[in-house]
Amino acid sequence: MSAVNRAAVEAVLRQYTDPYLNQDPVSAGCVRAIDIQGDRVTVRLELGYAAGLFKSGWAQMLQMAVEGLDGVAAAKVEIDCVIAAHKAQAQIPGLANVKNVVAVASGKGGVGKSTTAANLALALAREGARVGILDADIYGPSQGIMFGVAEGTRPKIKEQKWFVPIESHGVEVMSMAFLTDDNTPMVWRGPMVSGALLQLVTQTDWGNLDYLVIDMPPGTGDIQLTLAQKVPVAGAVIVTTPQDLALLDARKGVEMFRKVNIPVLGVVENMAVHICSNCGHAEHLFGEGGGEKLASQYGVELLASLPLSMLIREQADGGKPTVIAEPDSQIAMVYQELARHVGARIVLQEALSQAMPNITISDD
Predict the structure, then answer these.
(1) Taking Cα atoms as reference points, which of 19, 15, 41, 14 lies closest to residue 29?
(2) Which of 177, 202, 315, 359 has its CA 20 to 30 A from that of 56?
């Protein structure tokens, strides 16, 4: 039996690709230690994204691969998830304890953006992350309903200047709906809305969060510009349906985020297919392949494709979105995949930004 060495262990690890980082663990910089004691090997990996439901299976697969090496009698692979902070977060009051801000946006209303935001936040929490969600849809806040927060619930005030977010399903929730009456419309002009958003962002006493998901209002107006200019957003997720009209508006959303230098992490396609509950017939009511075309056009990832399902709507309306209501269902697993892809895309964007050279201009 030949003696095993670090190079041989790394060579085995390079044969396996992390499905979310699209790289092997060595190339992705995930390897933190390789300890070889005779014929026993311990490998420690560190993932930069929340992957609590994925890491045990990934560790087992890599362990079996290392144990297949000549000279290895037993192997152990340990995986930790350590989420780094976006470099600019500490500059904003109220966001000092928030590592990454993720905006969930759409070009038009009615495409399931808020439902996606709620399930994304809950899925990230299920993966082991500390998560908050901010309902930035000032005119039509809905996260309170989706998280089952009772009507009339008000946030506590801390030190006369901080809103204390309401916790539901393990997620910190803040919404304009908690500060107003459900039946009172917000008849505000743009500057008032932008001011309200900034107040919610900067005067909420967020805990130590790995991710703050912001449910954006539809469109490309004042709130989107205010967020882009005042809040260091790690990345944006664009939600659309396959319908041509929705895709047209989604393109505007992608272009807007690009113009304000916010990375677009990818596209979520809602209502992609309807499956009849009686006969099982699948029908593409709003067109087919639209999300994939949009993602391909802008060189971003199609993060998830979800069906037109009555259950998704009923569960969100009932205060228990799918990830909580049916955590082992196929649809919930799609949201978990979405959460891991979003976290991994942020890691890749950060690595890309750090790799970009600094350009200096001199008079010489």
Answers:
(1) 14
(2) 315
Q: How far apart are CA 82 and CA 198, in angstroms?
A: 29
First to last CA, the chain: 63
Q: At what angle do helices 310-317 and 113-126 cross, to 10 degrees?
A: 80
SS3 assignment, position 160: coil
Q: 65 with 158, same domain?
A: no
Distance between CA atoms of residues 261 and 266, nearest Å: 15
Q: What is the mean pLDDT of each run of 10 residues along the chain (364 residues)?
A: 83 96 94 93 96 95 94 94 77 82 83 91 97 87 89 87 92 87 60 77 90 86 78 89 69 82 88 61 51 69 82 86 92 94 92 59 46
* Domain membership of residue 12 as a residue range: 6-81
Max CA-CA distance within the chain? Answer: 78
CATH number at residue 61: 3.30.300.130
Q: Assess contact for 132 and 264: CB atoms under 8 A.
A: no
SS3 content of the chain, % helix, strand, coil (to 5): 35, 20, 40
Residue 361 lies in a domain: no
The total of structural domains in the chain comes to 2
